[in-house]
Amino acid sequence: MSLFGSHDASAGAPSFPAAASPLLANLNPEQLAAVTLPVGNALILAGAGSGKTRVLTTRIAWLMQTGQVSPGGILAVTFTNKAAKEMMTRLTAMLPVNVRGMWIGTFHGLCNRLLRAHWKLAHLPSTFQILDTQDQLSAIKRLMKQYNVDDERFPAKQTQWFIAGAKEDGLRPRDVEVRSDDDRKKVELYQLYEEQCQREGVVDFGELMLRSYELLRDNDAVREHYQRRFRHIMIDEFQDTNRLQYAWIKMLSGRTAEGRFEPSGHNSVIAVGDDDQSIYAFRGARVGNMADFVREFDVQRQIKLEQNYRSFGNILDSANALISNNTKRLGKSLRTEQGPGEPVRVYESTSDFAEAQWMVEEMRQLAREGIDRKEMAVLYRSNAQSRVIETALFNAAVPYRVYGGLRFFERAEIKHALAYLRLLENKDDDTSFLRVVNFPPRGIGARSIEQLQDAARAAGHSLHDAVSAVGGKAGANLSAFVAKIDVLREQTVGISLREIIELVLDHSGLIEHYKADREGADRIENLEELVNAAESFVTQEGFGRDAVALPVDELRQSPASQGLDPSLPVIDEPLAPDAETGETLSPLAAFLTHAALESGDNQAQAGQDAVQLMTVHAAKGLEFDCVFITGMEEGLFPHENSMSDFDGLEEERRLMYVAITRARQRLYMSHSQTRMLHGQTRYNLKSRFYDELPEGALKWLTPKNQGFAPSAFGYGGGYATSRGAGGGYSKDSFASPPVPPQKAAPSHGLRSGMQVFHNKFGEGTVVSLEGSGDDARAQINFPRHGVKWLALSVAKLTPV
DNA sequence: GCGGTCTAACTTTTT
DNA sequence: GTTAGACCGC
């Protein structure tokens, strides 16, 4: 079953005395082996709650403490800023070390650092700015309008997806395989988009990765420099890496002669991941990178961290049983030394409203038992489900916090302010120009802008530079805007970042505009917060202060750095000065980069003891005492859009696995017979994932539906209607996986093609039928309301 | 050019 | 049920 044999845990016999360091105290044998792995490439399969971050940080600390590497020889890559920060915080707590000398950060953050240091070689302007997803979309829309592309046939979103996807695979326009006329058009747009970005001096997220990959690929000296420097490379959440990120790691860690990859032998790459928690395939993540890594990096050591320190037995048994239904797995099973704990409670409600109501009651009970509200989390598959729950919590006056939604730097008013700031830094940033040229409104409408765009195109100028070409009233308004920007730019010389932002907020008219708006108070508050964000950024990054003394000498002397190219800069700062000129990014440019790379917190009010609401995706990496998984229904979870293909269903199952493993003590799952979705009532069957959980670990709070009649589904009568209180725990209960449902004799008397009448939807035609007993449902085409799935135990249908 | 109204869409999301 | 974007009339 396991792709890798069983030779793992004992693999890394420490070559340094383990007892010598208090760092290594209290590690289990597998963790110890991982922390003290000898030089060489290794894969660590780290299950949920197995102490992965602790292992990673302890290893870095141990390597430095034992003198095997200096801070400059470390490269640790994560996906989120949060994870990177967490790592640095824990590391500083372990060792008195200057973390700034280490390259710990997100893929994109580190790529940015590389490109800032070698901007010339990367063919970028020194002040290049970063487009976020929103900016990218508007840049593409603008491009498509300019070239009169039919946006019915090529929606901008789709083009964006195409471009991002190509970059994730490391493909430039000329590398993309063209299989249809549509492909050809998209590639053409990709090419034009690239030219536009280059002209405007901006890069998108994918470009950050791809450009730095090419930088390393095309410049032997640079590549070899970093290959020698980074003796120890560590990648977190390896299952989430895409093709390009994997190639980037390869490029940094080995030779690629004649297109062939050979591990360098003098550095170690340690990949940490969990294939069972791979839930980002939809955005290009490739779990296959794990197997490729083992093969291509000649991995000799694999360690499985299966000891779970988070959850009780029933919860882990549920997770293990569920995930065992997936076929493509490396093989791993969580174990705990805690007892079985509480059973997993399952609840069926009549409506989504009732489901939320029940949850509120249950939470009140939990609170009475002394559990903090911030230790209760409600998880759902899609954001649309949060509303009912929010309403119920709100009406019951239970404090709650919703994760997701707009982050600080993504808010419209913040984006507007940033657009002004970007124009100060780079007048050719047409995306920013268009965002604020008429915001606040100053009499520049679509017609004037079109004229301006035509003029700019004809002259090969940016919008800013083409303003003088437009005459009349429109031209006057445009000139006034440009003059305002140019004056602002002059005024910002020599003043602090804080003062720059205050100046811009004032002179742009943004504050004034929002003051006139009844609902502008929050926006003004956010704009004021922007000043604070800039202030704390300046303090943190050390702008305006002496740079922190960095262990440059140490780096140069250390064995890790031997053979480093002395002509290349030793980059120990996220925003290092240019090696040749000593020029550093202006605080403003640096802040804008920061804003793009770190979109800020996406939670409303922190601090308060509030129930946590979030999607399952957002919950990854978090843990709570009590977890409610809601909307356990076919079509919702697993989501209907992912059920068509096999891989999709397996990803949904992994998502379910992530959801289950968030819980420490108590886990609830609930589904509803009816649910309002997109303004329509839906009748969903309960999720197939229930059938993959060990009956013995569950406790049905409502009578378990008799819908899955044993005779029809071959369960051999293994299902009792309801478990007694306490929900007996039995190891054997999930020994045999459920048998897939078979066609049963219909008991409802409906057949495909039949005409039926529904009280609300009127007359319709039965299209198809599924299930039996209480779970039977019919797909019916109502001429006036479209095709619907109806649960026959709920919907009242009469044959016509 | 601006602001109001109507209509289609709408998993999951970090950088 | 909500929201963004298109469309239309002033």
Automatic annotation (TrEMBL):
It catalyses: ATP + H2O = ADP + phosphate + H(+); Couples ATP hydrolysis with the unwinding of duplex DNA by translocating in the 3'-5' direction. PANTHER family: ATP-DEPENDENT DNA HELICASE SRS2 (PTHR11070:SF2), UVRD / RECB / PCRA DNA HELICASE FAMILY MEMBER (PTHR11070). Belongs to the helicase family. UvrD subfamily. It holds the Pfam family UvrD_C. This is DNA 3'-5' helicase. One of its GO terms (molecular function) is hydrolase activity. ATP binds at residues 46-53. It is an enzyme of class 5 (isomerase). Keywords: ATP-binding, DNA-binding, Helicase, Hydrolase, Isomerase, Nucleotide-binding. InterPro entries: DExx_box_DNA_helicase_dom_sf, DNA_helicase_UvrD-like_C, DNA_helicase_UvrD/REP, P-loop_NTPase, UvrD-like_ATP-bd. CDD domains: DEXQc_UvrD, SF1_C_UvrD. Residues 730-749 are annotated as: Disordered. Its EC number is 5.6.2.4. PROSITE patterns: UVRD_HELICASE_ATP_BIND, UVRD_HELICASE_CTER. Residues 313-621 form the UvrD-like helicase C-terminal domain. Residues 25-312 form the UvrD-like helicase ATP-binding domain. SUPFAM superfamilies: P-loop containing nucleoside triphosphate hydrolases (SSF52540). The keyword Lyase does not apply. The keyword Transmembrane does not apply.
